Fold this protein.
Amino acid sequence: MNPRTLPPMLARLSALAQLAQALLVLLPALYLAWPGPGAVLAGDPEPEITGAGRAALAALFPAGLAIVRRGEPRLRAGLLWMALLLAGWVSAKIHPPVDSLGASRAWLIAATATAMLVAGSTLNVAGKMLLARALPLCSLALCVPALLDNGGQWSGPLGNSGAAAQTALPLALAGVWNLGSAPPWLRVLSWTALGACGLHAGLAPVWATPVVSVVVLALAALLALRNGSQQVRSQALRRALVGVVVVCGAFALAKGLFASGSAVTPIASSVPAAEQGVPTPPEPPPASEFAGLSVRASIARASLSMLAEHWTLGIGTGQFAAQFPPWREPQEIEVSTHARRLRNVETEVTFPHNDWLVGWVELGVIGGALWTGFLIVLAMTAVAALQSSPARASLGLATLGFLAFALVRGPLTYDPASASLAFGIFGALLAREGPSTPRPLRDRLCTYGAFLLLALSGQRALGIAACGRELAALWPFALRGLDSAQQSKLELALRLCPDSPSARAFLARERARANPGSNSSIRAWQSVLEVRPHALEALLGLSKELALAQRLQDAREILEQA
């Protein structure tokens, strides 16, 4: 080989590695949201749990490439993030988790977030530009399948319309900003992505989408008007106004079409009440479209009350779903069940719907202060980036979108698709730029540590992902009973993930059908309560089995607890 050709070849390989690293930052979210054959979350009753395992496995690729490239992750707030992980570990050691699967889900998301932070921070200027320009295309890939999922109530492969909106919208916002140097096709793609997010939000509906869009675009425009040149001011104001018109117009259009096209009817019994000899109750008033706001406010109040009694170390990482039920307000339960129009359905609150609050509730005042400090550093860096290069400004706007959505939902700690995307973008934004003192050992330890954290979680991630696949196949038969082949699948799910509340509940239902009032059915419902002490279905099921076993006093006590 001619020595003169070696430097250009190495430069081309480096550029290709940057391209691969930028695209791999998007890989975990796109993998989870794949809608075609082999969709990994299709029909999954708990996509947030299965997705956490699969996202951790997918994050091995960007973390591994960062090691191969010998990337230098020079993160702002890196020590703050490591202190936050340490606080979570200490809390878990002092207060062992009741819901071990919930703890594993939280730690898998934390490991994925760490790996994505490191992977994003190793991108150079060209890599960040590639990432910024890929965001609107990624937004469309996430939003369009949800738009086509009418039967699933616009939820798409992620299994929830809110998860689809909070994952796609920040990427669309990033695309419509700083398009001065972008080619025409990318400008069209960016506006199309924002319009698609607005349409999806109007159909679902997800009111957070227009609110977050208006707040974030208005903030960006105000900063440009305050600190920018005349040309920057006019461009920023025009883009912000057009962005608001596009997303709000698409939202209003979808709301109008949906309202005129169909009406939602309450779920009723198949036999009219009058034919059962029961007086027909008056129809309750329809639930307000803004009822979600009161639900979130109620959950926040109850979470703060729970924090007041667990302020030192919190309730534990990933323990919110297991510990929160006793704190729920009765009025919130009524609103969540649409004034009891959801017949034979009881709702659950599995996360606080506010990621700024979750660190305080689960980790106490020390962990909560570290978490809030990290988010504040992110917000300040994002605001400063709006006055920087086009790529950094786009990443900053996406970051503000994720942080704003975090006030009303869980894009950072609950949903694995949005969390992996958000922390990859956070890493690219927080990376220090320009010349610095070489720190090869520290940088290598950071990169290897992130990969090692994921690798140590690999076996648990595989078990959770495989268990979720088996439960997804069983879910359509949850109310009908399982045949022998399906019971074998259930046994496999329990071997893969023996602490899964859903798998244990499946087993309890089957034993209650086969041997009502038996010791085996009683023990099965008790095993569910071991990991979810306040699960209403398990309490009701256990009280019924105890009554059938003529243990009436025990049944009465369990029923009173329910």
